[in-house]
Amino acid sequence: MKTVLRTSGLVVALLMSSSAMAEDLRFTVWTGNEAHLSMLNAIAEGFKETHPDVTVTFETIPAADYVQKLTFQLAGGNAPDLGWLGEEPAPAFVDAGMLEDIGTALRAKDGYDYADFATEAMGLWVNGDSVYGIPFSTSPFMLYYNKTMFDAAGAEDPLALASKGEWTWEKLREVAQKVSAANDKWGFEFKDGEGYDSRIMHALMPPIRAYGGFAWKDGRCGFAEPEAVEAVTLLHEMVFEDKTIVPPGEQGDFFAGDAAMTINQISRASRLTDAGFDWGIAPLPTGPAGESPVVGQAGIVVFAKGDKKELATEFLAHMTNAENVATMAQFFPPARKSILDDAAFTDSNPNIPAEQMANVKAAINEGTVLPAHERMPQILAALKPRSDALWRADADVTKALEAMCSAIEPNL
């Protein structure tokens, strides 16, 4: 009986020891897409080859609420270990000391090849020798179009127009009218239908840059400059005069077949697997300033308030090694030069033809990341009520943009 008790105690001790060794990493993301999560979980499963007792849990926070809810978690003592972070809030998180410096660990890791990441792509995440994140997605904005609608309208599609050098913002306005009238659908929808709310910059920057404008630089606001006024006036007229852009308060989901065009990144192509219509992607329209690709970037970061920072850094290194970056490239264009330059990149997404992926690669090489700033949360908070005033039928676009500048300049 004593032997049995001692054996039982040993079993209990071993179970307790095994339980103590098991660790869970919390990883925040803004995707709820099944294809994305399946891929991420497979990458996490591969981590068990070297860390068999580690489980990674991906927690989805909707994109519109992501920064606010993540900030609450970090401030409230419920910090995740690591997660995704977009280009807009990244400088503010660095400035507030919310991100762990992972530079020394990554440079020293055998086989990681930190130098494989393009210097330009790392610019947002590096300060001297410190590294505060690794971009997992350097994704240009592309023009998605519903080819079935274009064919029904007898209109040349954006890819065909781009191949002839005729794809401009004025041309987009023209074909939006034609395709909308022929199909009794919206001609264009802002990114994720959030162009008036959480995606304000995503809506404004593609035409503003194509017209030669800017959001801000050297502490000066550019929204009220003539180039930006001309670009935003075109959008305003499409919303309220042409009635081809989905207006505030209305729904017109491109991915459900309710709009003929939208701007988004290639990660959204997975939503079109069973779309029920033919579709394609094309470069963004050009403007007076020529081709001006706009790039959205997101990085993987380790949160400084997490209690497993060393382990979280190990998983970040695993997730962003060459093999896993190649896997993620089907949804998230890479910052690793070896993957982007490999011919396999253009064949990486089963939903997008290679010749269209070539346009994605060109936009990555030639594009500029969306504006970012250390005081981005304050800028966006100040921008929101002024941009609400812009999106009214009777708005004076010039005065509305001047008001936007007045509101954000103290933070620049």
Automatic annotation (TrEMBL):
It comes from the Bacteria. GO terms for cellular component: periplasmic space. InterPro entries: Bact_solute-bd_prot1, SBP. Its main location: periplasm. It is found in: Periplasm. Residues 1-22 form the signal peptide. This is Extracellular solute-binding protein family 1. The lineage of its organism: Bacteria, Pseudomonadati, Pseudomonadota, Alphaproteobacteria, Hyphomicrobiales. Belongs to the bacterial solute-binding protein 1 family. Gene3D superfamilies: Periplasmic binding protein-like II. Keywords: Periplasm, Signal.
